[in-house]
Amino acid sequence: MDNATDQSLPEENHPQQEMQYSNEIFMPGEEVILQDSKNRRYLITLVPGKTFHSHSGAVEHDFVIGKKNASYIKARYAESGIDRERYYLAIKPTLADVILKMPRGAQVIYPKDLGAILMAADVYPGARILESGIGSGALSMTLLRAGAIVKGYEIRQDFIELACENIEKHRKQIFGYDSGNNSDIAARFSVECRDVYQGIDETDLDRILLDLPEPWQVVPFAQKALKAGGIFLAYLPTINQTTALRECLRENKFILSETLEVLNRTWHIEGNSVRPDHRMVAHTGFITVARNNAGDSAT
């Protein structure tokens, strides 16, 4: 969307004083994405009486509260002393939106990789998963969205606190706006401040997912903690780390080992002008997945 004014626009904005809750309506305390005519996106939390400012103009939060999802909001903007008409598109954020913009203590796993991890690890509702390297909670959010039961090991207490804050704050994006009883985080998510390199207490796990610099240290413990055929997955930034992990998996008799990376290239499509976009999200990490052997071997 190159120009917001090309779209159907609202006549005028007036603050809403009282409203009935609706999944389609922006409410106080709710997060919203404001996108300007140059497709710049801003994630804000709606607070009555506050005002959002950017290069594209200012918008009172009260003018967004009460509006329907995917509405255009008129901004106050003056250029050389002359008032100009500018608009923001106001839309409820997706889980991918909040993962990219939420506070982080460590580099988050990108949404393009999170989707691949869900499929590579074959995550399903009720799967018992050990996750280590919680960071800011991006992978935890994704696993909870898929219905998994997540046990976390994280060595840094500040990361635990940040991840728990992010998960609680973004529960609407995780569980949906009509989540009902499915949003019971405490029943499906817990995390301990401990070093997974020292061992794993849990047994009969369906999956082990690691975002750690030396996941090969966990492989011997994972072999005992996983069910036969259970899936081990690690996310690593460099090929040298990945090579060391693959060798350790082979030595510990893991089977069906595979490594992949995800390259995300968008396209510019405007009339007859069709080409790949000049920029893309290329290498961010290697995903390595393997299955736990039942204990026997082929003759």
Q: What is the subunit organization of this protein?
A: single chain
How many domains would you count in the coordinates?
2
The poorly predicted ranges are: 1-21
H/E element string? EEEEHEEEEHHEHEHHHEEHEHEEEE
Please identify the structural class as seen in this structure. alpha/beta
Shape: elongated
Distance between the termini: 61 Å
In words, what does this structure look like?
This protein has helices at residues 61-64, 95-101, 111-120, 138-145, 157-169, 171-175, 185-188, 219-225, 239-251, and strands at residues 31-35, 41-45, 51-54, 57-60, 71-75, 78-79, 82-83, 86-91, 128-132, 149-154, 189-193, 205-210, 226-236, 255-260, 267-270, 273-276, 286-291. It folds into two domains: 4-93, Vcp-like ATPase, Chain A, domain 2, CATH 3.10.330.20; 96-291, Rossmann fold. The protein contains nine helices and 17 strands. Strand 12 (205-210), helix 8 and strand 13 (226-236) form a beta-alpha-beta unit. With 299 residues, the chain is α/β, with parallel strands linked by helices.
Summarize the model shown.
This protein has 299 residues and is of the alpha/beta class. It is built from 9 helices and 17 strands. The model is unreliable at 1-21 (pLDDT under 50).
